[in-house]
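Support reply, case 0932

Customer input (verbatim):
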Amino acid sequence: MTRAPALFVGHGSPMNAIEDTPSARGWADVAQRFPKPRAIVCISAHWVTEGVRVMSNARPRTIHDFGGFPRELFEVQYPAPGDPALAQRIVELLQPFGAQLDESWGLDHGAWSVLKHMYPEADVPIVQVSLDIRRPSTEHYALAQKLTTLRDDNVLIVGSGNIVHNLPAFFRAPSPEPPPWVAAFDNLIVSSVEGDHTAALNYKSLLDAAIAAPDWEHYMPVVYALGAQHPGETPYVFNRYYAPGISMTAFAYGLPQ
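Our regenerated output:
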């Protein structure tokens, strides 16, 4: 049996898709640390819905869900196939949460800007699962626990967002040096990733949460990686790069030892 990992990535700017950055190199490196999965389930900060939706497209389009970037970025295509059968299986697993199939979405940049570096041939099928805006972190965690069984069928779980995500702080920063609260909040979450998940689930009560994680949709993919952890798995933490208002930290459970 090949068990795929559960992964969280801080995806940051979509420019990471086309630039040689430390984070992009980290994504490419981590993909070499485990066998290629048969499929990927991605929970991205950039697909938010009322209700749980599961992308069922056989040929999902590449969504350029941003503005103000170079034409080169808008020309990027990531033609990975979908997996309608896997989408149906996910809906069945998430039936207690009222999940429904959805063909309206495609692959947003939370997915393709990262996976482009992990699997440049775009040869691994991908199914995105939306973030239900109506649910608290504990219910997102319960959703992720339902998805954990997919890992035993060599399906990679990927949450894509940012532990620290405050764009006003990024754009208004007086210097390129990140303020102390970026690393401080990131460290609190990483400590929870490495042990008891309670603090990460109750992140809003942590010091500096209001400024470090005001964008719930960018934080919540962390919870999906946490919930997909198998007992006894030790996280591999990587890409610990900071900018004003942003942390690019990533972690994986279940990498081969």
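We compared this against your earlier run and they match. Two observations from our side: The chain has a mean pLDDT of 97. The longest strand covers residues 155-161. Please reopen the case if you see a mismatch on your end.
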